[in-house]
């Protein structure tokens, strides 16, 4: 269906809304969506898919029930696929899940990558197509590429990651390998896998880094190092791919209320109880201070939808920024990186002693 055909189809729906329980705001919503549809958004839809669109079913449902939820279905079905195909990794929870649902609402066709059938089913219920993908598995990456087929990709949201906290002295090299396998090697593997399809659509890569990629804290060195690496990879890729028509954007959130914060707190509590010789004496105060910060972050952090909206902007803005810092804490820490190192050390260590 072309953009003009969309206008006709929605033009026919809007007057129906007047006679139903929906109101003029609903009609404005429909009109707004019509107006945001761009010709570029038709990328990747075959003629057969356009003919077989389930829009008709939802329009009939809308007419017979006249409900707002039916209107919602009409809107999401008519707009779905219009902006093109995107992949979001780590979509089971937190920022990834919020992003997958937000992009679906914006009219993207979303492949949401998860690791379990239960998570896949939960997303399917929201109209998002799941993709089974552990980003450290070459076999699953190849299968995901095959599932995508020849569909061009307008966006890849590289979000999946794990956390690992603890003093570097007590972080095993096995744990470091595991962390970097996901947060760094896995992320690059995902990009390499889908670059051909991104080239086909002049798509965008959105890397979810962190303010931790600029500011390294005690007892968070391993995780922070992985996010510094994401930042470096992001900047190199942006410079390598710009002449191929692929833009690369870094998202740098501060604390966001997701499952990762609970995982960090659990790990710090474990360390706090750990009897390893020297751990408590040398790092106990830092671990306690990190626990307090994690606890505060759990209470005061922003909702993942805040990040999802920024990712939506990064994918749809005609000229996106190269990086988006998110949250007041992220801005404060970014400003602190401009201070002399020794001054920042003193500020942080004073906090540990407090
Ligand atoms: N929350 C924050 O405060 C914050 C701040 C800055 C940056 N970030 C970044 O935001 C991103 C999302 O984190 P989040 O806060 O939303 O945490 P989260 O809820 O724990 O989500 C992490 C996601 O990554 C997935 N994942 C982990 N290992 C994977 C693997 N090997 N293959 C595929 N997927 C894997 C997890 O899947 P499973 O459910 O299957 O484990 C989950 O979907 C991460 O890159 C994180 O570093 C978060």
Note down, in words, how this protein is organized:
α6 (94-106) links the parallel β1 (85-88) and β2. It is built from 15 helices and 7 strands. It is globular. 39% of the residues are buried. The chain has helices spanning 3-19, 24-36, 47-51, 55-65, 68-79, 94-106, 117-124, 138-148, 173-201, 221-241, 259-273, 279-300, 304-316, 328-336, 341-353; strands at 85-88, 109-114, 129-132, 153-158, 204-208, 247-253, 323-326. It is an alpha/beta fold and 354 residues long. The longest helix has 29 residues, at 173-201. The model is unreliable at 1-67 (pLDDT under 50). The chain is 60% helix and 10% strand. It has a 7-stranded parallel sheet, with helices on both faces. The structure holds NADP nicotinamide-adenine-dinucleotide phosphate. NADP nicotinamide-adenine-dinucleotide phosphate binds at residues 89-90, 92-96, 115, 133-136, 159-162, 182, 186, 208, 210, 253, 255-256, 258-261, 304. NADP nicotinamide-adenine-dinucleotide phosphate binds next to α6, α9 and α11.
Number of helices: 15
Structural class: alpha/beta
Radius of gyration: 23 Å
> What's the rounded overall pLDDT mean?
84
The arrangement of helices and strands along the chain is HHHHHEHEHEHEHEHEHHHEHH
**Residue share in helix:** 55-70%
The CATH class label of the largest domain is Alpha Beta
What is the CATH architecture term of the largest domain?
Answer: 3-Layer(aba) Sandwich
The main sheet orders its strands as 3-2-1-4-5-6-7
